[in-house]
Amino acid sequence: LLITSMGTSTVALVLLGVCLCDAFRVGSGRTHVARPRRAAVPSANFFESLGKVAEYNRKYLTTALSSVFDDRTARASHILFSFDKYDNGEADAAALKARIEGGEVSFTEAAQQFSTCPSAARGGDLGSFKKGAMVPEFDAVCFDESTQLGSTVYGPVKTQFGHHLITVYERSEKS
């Protein structure tokens, strides 16, 4: 291609043609607009996925609505084994729970070493929170009257974030 003998308007047209090459395809003398690629067909059953979404929304709304009428608070710590970092978070959490209960490592040390939550810097301490502030599965453990307060480790508890080991230190009474 020899551009030196062409004027500036010809160069602009050539550049425009180069820029549009992705949008148009030339074949058999016909020019047509490229068709967008279709998305891959989802492998999961649509209705099964819809059911999971509906079930989670039901749990979330139940927790949120109950917090309107329930002003209790709790103070807890947790260790999060996120799905991103741990391929087998449930097994890792169960193994760590056994080590904590066996006295090999304290909950605080384990949280600092293994948790993927920003609370790891505080030994997993989440501070005080109201009912409904956490995801439903987490709230269920923290606000269950049968959950013992103190050093008992609960879990692994699966949530949308991963698997948790939870220790509940305080819980206010229902008013």
Instruction: Tell me the β content.
Output: 15-25%
Shape: globular
Find the count of extended strands (DSSP E, 2+ residues).
Answer: 6
Separation of the first and last Cα atoms:
84 Å
Structural class: alpha+beta
Largest sheet: 4 strands, antiparallel
- Rg on CA atoms, Å: 28 Å
Task: Specify the helix fraction band.
Answer: 25-40%
SSE string: HEEHEHHEHEE
Name the poorly predicted regions.
Answer: 1-28
Average of pLDDT: 79
What key phrases describe this protein's structure?
175 residues, alpha+beta, 22% strand, disordered N terminus
Describe the structure.
With 175 residues, the protein is of the alpha+beta class. The protein is built from five helices and six strands; from the N terminus they run αββαβααβαββ. The strands form two sheets. Strands 4-3-6-5 form a four-stranded antiparallel beta sheet, sandwiched between helices. Strand 5 and strand 6 form a beta hairpin. The N and C termini lie far apart (84 Å).
